[in-house]
Design brief:
Blueprint (H helix, E strand, L loop, with lengths): L2 H8 L2 E4 L7 E4 L1 H5 L1 H12 L8 E5 L2 H13 L2 E7 L8 E7 L2 E7 L8 E9 L3 H12 L3 E10 L5 H5 L4 E6 L1
Parallel strand pairs: 3-4, 3-7, 7-8, 8-9
Antiparallel strand pairs: 1-2, 4-6, 5-6
Main location: cytoplasm
InterPro entries: Ade_phspho_trans (IPR005764), PRTase-like (IPR029057), PRTase_dom (IPR000836), UPRTase/APRTase (IPR050054)
Family: Belongs to the purine/pyrimidine phosphoribosyltransferase family.
């Protein structure tokens, strides 16, 4: 890991018992506030995929922040993958299981079939949201170029559940 990335990682704060007791929340806002750390992180997110994607898809909500910067840095388009009910036009939907219920993500079909899409989110925990995002991209007819995640929480089974040989994580716990 480069010195720039080590410093960037040190800016991710751990907030215990948020939003629920027993959860250790990773607050990335100090990293986002630091221009050099943010740039190094975005570059690291997309480095293994450079030249292999046409669009970056970001999962709501913090994935939007990373994906928009990555799309800009790579000179490609941006595709928001939203929580259900947030898009103004008809959209494709994909359901996934949460620890406490079922959720859905959705996206518009704004790109031609076969478009190569890099999926980005902030945290890989159990893998449900990212798997749903990937499956949604495939349902829309897009080619999944890979998955990039800022922070992987090891021990929660997300990597195995996602089962993505093109998974790239910048930081791990």
């Amino acid at each position: 890991m480069t010195p720039e990335l080590k410093r960037a990682e040190s800016l991710i704060l751990e907030i215990p018992d948020y939003p629920l007791e027993g959860v250790l929340f990773r607050d990335i806002t100090p990293l986002l506030a630091d221009a050099e750390a943010f740039r190094a992180t975005v570059d690291a997110l997309i480095a293994p995929f450079r030249g292999s994607f046409d669009v970056v898809a970001g999962l709501e909500a913090r994935g939007f922040l990373l994906a928009s910067a990555a799309a800009y840095a790579a000179g490609v388009g941006l595709m928001p993958v939203r929580k259900s009910g947030k898009l103004p036009r008809p959209a494709a939907k994909m359901s996934y299981a949460l620890e406490y219920g079922i959720a859905e993500v959705e996206a518009h079909a704004d790109f031609p079939r076969g478009t190569r899409v890099l999926l980005i989110d902030d945290v890989l925990a159990t893998g449900g949201t990212l798997a749903a995002g990937r499956d949604l991209l495939r349902e829309l007819g897009y080619a999944h170029a890979g998955t990039a995640v800022l922070f992987e929480i090891e021990g929660l089974g997300g990597r195995d559940a996602l089962n993505d040989p093109r998974l790239h994580t910048v930081f791990r716990s």
